[in-house]
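Good morning,

Attaching, inline, the backbone tokens for the sequence recovery test we're adding to the shared suite. The designed sequence is right after.
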């Protein structure tokens, strides 16, 4: 029987319980949502004693299913005020699953302020240890000392100084395959919730664990083989394919060409510095500088897509891993910065402080809009980021994200939904992603329903990006994504799953193999819809209405070059997305 580990940060007490029958088939986002909906009052203060943080590996995480090392983290978001699920690919997830842990639930707040704790989990049990010695330090300094102390083979979760200071853009950091502090369940400020609970780290040691039980090995093998074949066949996910060769930043030139690459705080849809900051440029620099530079890197063992990279300094030593599309854009085009070395430094700082790069870049763009820096001024952007690390009053504001920063400095043009800044796709030029941003229970989030696949990439069919009838597409993508986020597979399997029926079948059959279920591909819709319904019911009880399912006003009247379009999807179309 898999266990739920409950950590009471008020009493500093850890208990283990068998997972209730109702959670038996759940994993990932499905499980974190369910526990939050069952146990957290939607009206609670996100940083108060009644919020909880739940960690759960996906259904197939910890097995040798391809690209399946995801950890889901859930709680009430201090950034949006609604439910939040963020996930990351990391060895931590695989080790937690192999230890037989279905979920970790962190609850309560400490009696003593400014005391931090480390949760150590291994085959012998789970214990809290003092972690004060690591307070106030950057994660690039902290991680090597953690692995020196606990062994290179463990999985690590951490919050940085942003989480300690309860900044609402604090993310939750995990180790990557080489034990860097670089893999983030970044969005929604859940790092601040952990900070409010005084939990700085979780260390998982799966040595001598039994591993993940697979109830029907034949079904599992058949399913994973089908999915792996689909991944190895698709142009986007195959070895030597687009993601493997250029990383996710392969999208820079594509989105720029489409006129949907948000530039200078969403003022334009094309960036003159796109080519210089593209996936192609990253690959060339890795090759030219050599040394530590590489593409085709991976976040955890067992990924066959391998979309990550290690970006080198001019002398070939490592600068940061990785420059992926969203981070590249957030600190690049969105701030008008066209220098990859500056972008690499801004990502490094963001990782070091424990921030979500999308929100951090969006915040810098908003203060540029406010006049605290010129667009394109990389040196000033670095100075502003360092304010966050130092925890100055300005830094504390910036660390609370774009919406808070916009309010403080009187900026009207804040491109967010439900308090969360938009990612790297312009909704005026690609309407479906705007519908996802508006209607996802998560706030503006491209990963909540990646309509870019059919609208721009021609994957899963074709959809005209300017067509405003996108309710059905946005709904289907949100539902499918909620299913994938529950399985433990990386969202990037979606390309092969959308284009090859056997890819989707394989993902379902691999779950059947682990769980002993008889799901068919029809269950994908059932599971995904249940997840979305849970999230919407939480948000409704927290006070959200359909008025919150809207894009910022300026996008309705400000024309976006080069296509000179506004966001003209009618409110009725937005309201159709989740209508019963
Ligand atoms: S495709 Fe990229 S993000 Fe997904 S598991 Fe592989 S390396 Fe990680």
């Amino acid at each position: 029987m898999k266990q739920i580990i409950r950590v009471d940060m008020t009493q500093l007490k850890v208990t283990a319980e068998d997972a209730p029958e109702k959670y038996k088939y759940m994993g990932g986002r499905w499980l974190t949502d369910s526990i939050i909906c069952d146990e957290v009052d939607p009206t609670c203060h996100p940083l108060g004693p009644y919020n909880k943080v739940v960690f759960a590996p996906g259904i197939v995480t910890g097995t040798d299913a391809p690209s399946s090392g995801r950890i889901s983290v859930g709680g009430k978001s201090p950034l949006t005020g609604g439910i939040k699920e963020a996930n990351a690919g990391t060895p931590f997830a695989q080790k937690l699953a192999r230890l037989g842990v279905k979920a970790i639930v962190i609850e309560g707040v400490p009696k003593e302020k400014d005391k931090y704790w480390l949760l150590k989990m291994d085959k012998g049990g789970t214990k809290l240890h003092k972690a004060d010695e690591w307070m106030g330090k950057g994660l690039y300094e902290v991680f090597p000392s953690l692995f020196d102390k606990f062994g290179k083979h463990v999985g690590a979760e951490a919050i940085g100084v942003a989480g300690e200071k309860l900044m609402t853009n604090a993310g939750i950091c995990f180790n990557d395959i080489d034990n860097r502090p670089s893999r983030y369940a970044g969005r929604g400020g859940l790092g601040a919730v952990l900070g409010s609970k005084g939990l700085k780290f979780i260390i998982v040691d799966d040595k001598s664990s039994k591993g993940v039980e697979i109830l029907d090995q034949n079904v599992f093998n058949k399913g994973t083989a089908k999915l792996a074949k689909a991944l190895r066949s698709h142009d986007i996910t195959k070895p030597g394919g687009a993601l493997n060769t250029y990383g996710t930043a392969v999208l820079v030139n594509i989105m720029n060409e489409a006129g949907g690459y948000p530039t200078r705080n969403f003022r334009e849809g094309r960036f003159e510095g796109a080519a210089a900051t593209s996936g192609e440029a990253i690959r060339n620099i890795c090759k030219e500088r050599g040394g530590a530079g590489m593409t085709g890197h991976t976040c955890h063992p067992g990924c066959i897509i391998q979309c990550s990279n290690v970006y080198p300094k001019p002398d070939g030593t490592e600068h940061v891993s990785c420059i992926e599309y969203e981070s590249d854009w957030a600190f690049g085009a969105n701030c008008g910065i066209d220098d990859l070395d500056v972008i690499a430094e801004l990502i490094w700082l963001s990782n070091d402080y424990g921030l979500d790069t999308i929100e951090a870049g969006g915040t810098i763009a908003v203060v540029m809009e406010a006049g605290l820096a010129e667009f394109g001024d990389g040196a000033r952007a670095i100075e502003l980021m360092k304010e966050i690390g130092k925890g100055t009053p300005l830094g504390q504001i910036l660390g609370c994200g774009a919406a808070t920063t916009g309010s403080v400095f009187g900026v009207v043009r804040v491109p967010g939904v439900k308090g969360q800044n938009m990612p790297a796709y312009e909704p005026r030029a690609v309407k479906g992603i705007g519908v996802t941003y508006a209607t996802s229970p998560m706030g503006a989030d491209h990963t909540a329903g990646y309509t870019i696949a059919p609208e721009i990439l021609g994957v899963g069919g074709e959809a005209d990006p300017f067509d405003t009838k996108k309710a059905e597409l946005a709904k289907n993508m949100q539902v499918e994504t909620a299913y994938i986020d529950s399985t433990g597979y990386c969202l990037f399997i979606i390309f092969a799953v959308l284009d090859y029926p056997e890819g989707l079948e394989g993902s379902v059959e691999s779950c059947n193999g682990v769980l002993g279920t008889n799901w068919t591909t029809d269950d994908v819709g059932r599971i995904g819809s249940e997840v979305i319904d849970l999230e919407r019911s939480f948000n409704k009880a927290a006070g959200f209405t359909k008025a919150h399912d809207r894009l910022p006003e300026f996008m309705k009247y400000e024309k976006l070059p080069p296509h000179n379009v506004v966001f003209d999807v009618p409110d009725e179309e937005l309201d159709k997305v989740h209508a019963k």
